[in-house]
Amino acid sequence: MNNRTILGIFILLLVAAGGYFLYASDKCRGEKCGDTYTNEMGGTNSGENGGGVHDLPVEPAAAAARADLAARLGIDQKSIVIMKVEERTWSDGCLGLGGDQICTQALVDGFRVEMEAGGKTYVYRTDRTGAAVRAEN
Question: How far apart (Å, rounded) are the C-alpha atoms in residues 57 and 126?
Fold first, then answer.
């Protein structure tokens, strides 16, 4: 192989690698990227294990938060859009929202779930499984 052939192959590989990284960074829309679930429409709006807009998977904890909000507002779960789900570690068993309540003093892994319903934003905190669900607002 001569130097031109080697240089051509190197440039081709470099372009292919650059294209892959551009694709991978754009691929975050519609699936889990880092510690946040999101999509280009801002979230999902139906189904317990999948969303209606782009059929995104929904953490069971986020589904529990959506069910709690639906019951609280007296609306159908499908009318609630999950905008963002972020992994968090809460400071106690009350998910950091205990106030004057007695809470277990242990770190609790879970999620911060941001949802929208009726033009308003609601934020919930959950543990990892969704057994503990608390509204921030």
Answer: 17
CA distance 128 to 65: 12
pLDDT in tens, 16-67: 766 655 554 444 444 444 444 444 344 433 344 444 443 466 789 999 999 9
CA 18 – CA 102 distance, rounded (Å) = 53
Phi-psi region of 30 (alpha: psi -120 to 50; beta: other; left: phi over 0): left
Total Cβ atoms within 10 A of residue 88 = 17
Instruction: Name the E strands within the chain.
Output: 32-33, 36-37, 81-90, 108-117, 120-127, 133-135
**Is residue 80 over pLDDT 50?**
yes
| Closest CA relative to residue 89, chosen from 125, 114, 124, 130 | 125
pTM value > 0.70: no
Domain ranges of the chain: 1-28, 31-135
